[in-house]
Design goal:
The chain is of the alpha+beta class. The protein has three domains: 2-73, MutS, DNA mismatch repair protein, domain I (3-Layer(aba) Sandwich), CATH 3.40.1170; 77-167 and 349-353, 3-Layer(aba) Sandwich (Trna Endonuclease, Chain: A, domain 1), CATH 3.40.1350; 176-261, tRNA intron endonuclease, N-terminal domain (MutS, DNA mismatch repair protein, domain I, 3-Layer(aba) Sandwich). The protein contains ten helices and 24 strands. Strands 7-8-9-11-12-24-23-21-20-19 form a ten-stranded mixed beta sheet, with helices on both faces. The two termini are 30 Å apart. The model has no long low-confidence stretch (mean pLDDT 92).
Length: 357
């Protein structure tokens, strides 16, 4: 079939060809009076497949020519085309070009553009591009409000595509501080608080599974200690015997540890949600998080505290997401905005788990 180039789209005037493209192939947009308009993604793919001849003032364009023309007309066309082609041919899904904040709209398995709405809004990006976390959060909220989901298609240097589905999460647990009476006295040594009175150790465990017992000595991290001082359940003295109030301990942590303020805000928010929060270093994140007694369940979440305005490189995200998937946990980026914390999950799709496969 033949089509005529017109600015940034291709016109297929023949009514039979147009009906075939739209009705059976889910390509194009119907024209008044018959035929279809194809966007440049569709025209380029159909040219590659040998199903369309694109004419420019009567001259047939090669695939190379239509690809170069499309690249000049659409910024980042090479990345966009790789993702479009992968979804259309590799997944067998209907996908349409979008404008504005999204690159593509993707229909669910077995769905057609004539009788359904897209299930996903997709952004096509290079692995070398930078992700703006706040923009991703707002995009996820927007697509969820439209009853859709946000996907990222990330293209590596070999042209392979990895897909990430984003979710806004509201984590919750069952462990809220009890009415257990008690108080603990700790000593700050380096960046930890130690409690030497054996009778006080049980109280901290019963109060909410705080700290860790090592060789008869109870140990708290600085964020745990700050939280407990703020709750009035812990008194901390430095090695000289001087008592440190909340502000003193916070200032000490702020000066001694990177990202202390954000980590403390996230820790506090998670605790107020009934979650038990422990160190996540062995998983490459700030926290591992339990919904109940850590002795009776596995950690459900891995949480990494970041500023709301943070930017991340995709290889960093890929490593974090793949690690969490390997240990069967959900990775949440906890984005600190003032006194609020927003939780954004990146879910990695294996090709066989993408809709339509």
């Amino acid at each position: 079939m033949k089509g005529e180039l017109a600015d940034d789209y291709v016109i297929v005037k023949d009514q039979t060809d147009g009906n075939h493209l739209y009705g059976k192939g889910n390509y194009g947009y119907p024209r008044s009076g018959g035929g279809v308009d194809l966007d440049l993604l569709e025209a380029t793919l159909l040219t590659e497949l040998g199903k369309l001849e694109v004419l420019d003032k009567g001259r047939k364009l090669s695939f190379e020519e239509i690809f170069k023309l499309s690249s000049d007309a659409i910024e980042g066309f090479d990345i966009l085309y790789i993702v479009y082609r992968d979804i259309r041919l590799g997944r067998g899904l209907v996908v349409k070009q979008e404008t504005g904040n999204y690159d593509l709209s993707v229909f669910g398995a077995g769905k057609r553009q004539s009788n359904s709405r897209p299930a996903y809004m997709l952004r096509a990006v290079s692995e070398r591009s930078v992700l703006d976390a706040s923009e991703s959060l707002e995009g996820t909220k927007e697509t969820n409000d439209r009853r859709k989901n946000l996907l990222y298609g990330v293209v590596d240097e070999e042209g392979d595509v990895t897909y990430y589905k984003l979710h806004v999460k509201d984590p919750a647990g069952k462990v809220f501080p009890t009415d257990v009476k008690g108080h603990a006295d700790g000593v700050l040594v380096s960046d930890r608080v130690f409690i030497f009175q054996q009778e006080q150790c049980g109280f901290l465990h019963d109060y909410g599974f705080f700290g860790k017992l090592i060789n008869g000595i109870y140990q708290l991290s600085l964020v745990e200690a700050c939280y407990l001082v703020g709750k009035g359940k812990l008194t901390v003295k430095d090695e000289s015997g001087t008592e440190m109030d909340y502000d003193d301990l916070f200032e000490y942590g702020f000066n001694e540890q990177d990202e202390f303020e954000n980590r403390l805000k996230v820790y506090t928010d998670l605790r107020e949600r009934g979650l038990v929060v422990k160190a996540g270093f062995k998983y490459g994140t700030h926290f591992r998080v339990y919904q109940d007694d850590p002795d009776d369940c596995h950690a459900r979440f891995l949480v990494h505290a970041v500023p709301y305005e943070v930017t991340k490189m995709w290889p960093d995200i890929s490593r974090t997401v793949r690690l969490s998937g390997g240990v069967k946990k959900e990775i949440l980026f906890a984005m600190v905005q003032g006194n609020s914390v927003h939780y954004l999950e990146f879910e990695w799709y294996k090709p066989g788990l993408l809709p339509g496969k």
